[in-house]
């Protein structure tokens, strides 16, 4: 059995009760933290809290060489952990399909995602979101500014009146016990807003910082204004709203401090 478990958004306690029970019952536990990570807990915190030993796998150790995971699932109960919800990344779908192809039973235990948290914290309606995008560090895509694919997706959503969730790039170096704090880089929301303001300077946007933590931050203003502010510790994301329902407009004003002149009357 291979059980995919989403850890939720923040720390060792963010996992669901169902996920916690499956994790603690597993014979072998694997994890990856290159697609995202918990900023309120490290691997040692997870191991201590759940009384398990976790083998952290690199991207190559999941995508190119998953044999250790699959072998453990063939001979016992293996758990595979990720931050957020476990099936957001195609990497994890590929691993599940490999397991199924070998006759290994699989199970998915979902966790809270940044997407649902962004809707809940901002008051924007979940079904009014269009295609999400990831904004990479300029050096990561070999160019300057914002990739054309990101611009095209945002423009397509705006034309349809839909909100755009913008995930912000992370680069996590790996040490012997998982993510290495000395080699981590997280795109802050002010940096992202500055990049996007080149094309949409006066467009309304919303920053969501540290979703899932005890003290998340939500702030709405123009991209150019958000580019001048600091939003503290990671993880951050941005939302570029489309057409606003009056309840959404009221929520952005009341929950995110959106200036009245940016909202529909």
Element layout with pairings:
Layout: E1 2-6, H1 17-25, E2 28-31, H2 43-50, E3 54-56, H3 59-63, H4 67-75, E4 78-82, H5 90-101, E5 106-109, H6 114-122, E6 133-135, H7 148-159, E7 164-168, E8 170-175, E9 178-186, H8 189-200, E10 204-209, E11 217-222, H9 223-226, E12 236-240, H10 246-256
Short description:
With 265 residues, the protein is an alpha/beta fold. Helix content is 34%, strand content 23%.
Largest beta-sheet details: 5 strands, parallel
Radius of gyration, CA atoms, in whole angstroms = 19 Å
Distance between the termini: 55 Å
Helix content: 25-40%
Average of pLDDT = 93
As a percent range, the share of strand residues is 15-25%
Strands across the major sheet, in which order? 3-2-4-1-5
* CATH class (first level) name of the largest domain: Alpha Beta
